[in-house]
Design a protein that fits this description.
Belongs to the band 7/mec-2 family. Flotillin subfamily. It is found in: Cell membrane; Membrane, Caveola. Keywords: Cell membrane, Membrane. It is a lipid-anchor. This is Flotillin-like. The structure is a single chain. By secondary structure, this protein is of the alpha+beta class. Among the domains are: 118 residues, Tetrahydropterin Synthase, Chain A; 139 residues. Helix content is 67%, strand content 12%. It contains eleven helices and nine strands. The strands form three sheets. Strands 6, 7, 8 and 9 form a four-stranded antiparallel sheet that branches. Strands 3-2-5 form a three-stranded antiparallel sheet, covered by helices on one side. β2 and β3 form a beta hairpin. It is flat, with a radius of gyration of 65 Å. The protein starts with a strand and ends in a 15-residue tail after the last helix.
């Protein structure tokens, strides 16, 4: 067990006590330190931070911004040590010789200063130094509040050119050249006015002198004065004309000098713009590098400030998220499998329905084509029968007999009658043409004669059995009454 002791802090110090009987951190100027308690002395005096930030304006023009910030822990009344507690926690992670706090403060100031400068034009930064200082002060203070730090003073010095990007030097040279050119123009105008005035005064003097001389000469010699007067008048006009021409020459010379000065200025501006284009690209790349550095430094600071409890909490959260993700993926896999099965069944049903529809469409198409064929055959037969009927002079019985003979109707009737009278005793007629054949003497017309002799008994037999008369163009049966 330790011995209790009484501790008193210095004028610019504060005691941070932790341990037995203290929930978190107790800040005191003096304290009676008990056993199992620990006391750390905090230096709360402000510190000056001098630095030179390389920033870039909204026109992508690089420059140096020298500045001095006086920063220290924010000390308020004793009842509210919230900011000082944040500062004590920050100091607990650094030893006395560490530059961690200094690097932290400089990183915040430089980062916010660059971001603010990038949103303003060079003219706004140059002319509004007071407003720029206030903006930097507000934005940096907002970032430092989370560490319990307070800006007691901020001083932004004169802007400085980056080597190789002499914007302010060129700006001064531009101003000097403009002033010099304007002075040259003013001198030329003054010289022009002086010379013109002198010439005018000289001309007026000579005119007055010539006028007086002419008047005197006229008074003395009136008879010869008219000629001399005219001569003096002509000489005076010539002199005035010469003076006017000289004034015009001087004016033209002045205009030419102005144009030459403008051309020289334009050429110089073009060279400066070409050089600045390269400088702007280099500044953009440098700004990207600075952003990466600031990001890495910020991440490093966050990693250093994380506590073990935060790490354990993140591990638990990751494990819970991993388990939830695993279950979600299993559920999604089961749902995906069910969806695929349903899609397969729907695809089979669609295929079967499509096959049935195609079969029905094929059958319907065959029926349609068959009907079209029958209709075509009917039309052809109608045309065929119409042409035969026309050739027969619209003799319908002759058309009927022709169709029956052509389609073999008589042969079918004979076959049907032969089958019907099988086993019966029909009336059978036998024709013989032997005598006639002998009388023909065996000529080539013997067969034709025999065929014609067989027609009358054949037609009579058909008439008796069916009641049908032979066509008139073929034969006529005798009347048996």
């Amino acid at each position: 067990m330790g011995i209790p002791r009484y501790i008193v802090a210095g004028p610019s110090e504060m005691l941070a006590i932790t341990g037995n009987g203290i929930p978190e951190i107790l800040l005191k100027k003096k304290h009676f330190l008990w056993p199992l308690q620990k006391c750390t002395t905090l230096d709360i005096s402000p510190v000056n931070y001098s630095f030179q930030v390389q920033a870039m304006s909204a026109e992508k023009l690089p420059f140096y911004l020298p500045a001095v910030f006086t920063i220290g822990p924010k000390v308020l009344e004793e009842a509210n040590y919230e900011s000082l507690i944040k500062y004590a926690k920050l100091m607990s992670n650094s030893d006395k010789q560490s530059t961690h706090i200094q690097d932290l403060v400089k990183g915040v100031i430089e980062g916010e200063t660059r971001v603010l400068a990038a949103s303003m034009t060079m003219e706004q930064i140059f002319k509004g130094t007071k407003e720029f200082k206030q903006e930097v002060f507000d934005k940096v203070q907002l970032e430092l509040n989370q560490f319990g730090l307070y800006i007691y003073n901020a001083n932004v010095k004169q802007l400085v050119d980056v080597p190789g990007h002499e914007y302010f030097s060129y700006l001064g040279q531009k101003t000097q050249m403009e002033a010099a050119n304007q002075a040259k123009i003013d001198v030329a105008e003054a010289r022009m006015k002086g010379e013109i005035g002198a010439k005018l005064r000289d001309g007026e003097t000579k005119q007055n002198a010539a006028k007086i001389d002419a008047e005197t000469f006229i008074e003395s010699t009136k008879r010869q004065g008219e000629g001399k007067k005219e001569e003096v008048r002509v000489n005076t006009e010539v002199k005035i004309f010469q003076n006017q021409r000289e004034a015009e020459v001087i004016e033209a010379t002045t205009v030419l000098a102005k144009k030459k000065a403008g051309w020289s200025q334009t050429a110089r501006l073009a060279e400066v713009e070409a050089e600045k284009a390269v400088a702007i690209r280099e500044a953009e790349l440098q700004m990207e590098v600075e952003k990466k550095k600031a990001f890495v430094e910020t991440a490093k600071l966050k990693a250093e400030l994380l506590t073990k409890a935060t790490v354990e909490y993140d591990i638990k959260v990751q494990e819970a998220n991993s388990e939830l993700y695993k279950r979600q993926k299993e559920a999604e896999a089961a749902l995906f499998e069910s969806q695929k099965k349903a899609e397969a069944q729907r695809a089979n049903a669609d295929a079967e329905l499509y096959a049935r529809q195609q079969a029905a469409n094929s059958e319907l198409y065959a029926k349609q084509k068959e009907a079209e064929g029958v209709a075509t055959i009917g039309k052809a037969q109608a045309i065929y029968i119409g042409s035969i009927l026309k050739e027969l002079n619209h003799n319908y019985p002759a058309l009927r007999d022709y169709l029956m003979i052509n389609n073999g109707i008589y042969q079918e009737i004979a076959n049907t009658n032969a089958q019907a009278v099988q086993g019966m005793q029909p009336k059978i007629s036998i024709w013989s043409g032997s005598n006639s054949a002998e009388s023909e003497g065996g000529s080539g017309l013997k067969d034709v004669a025999g065929l014609y002799r067989m027609l009358p008994p054949l037609l009579e037999t058909v008439h008796e059995q069916t009641g049908m008369q032979p066509p008139a163009w073929l034969a006529t049966l005798p009347d048996h009454k």
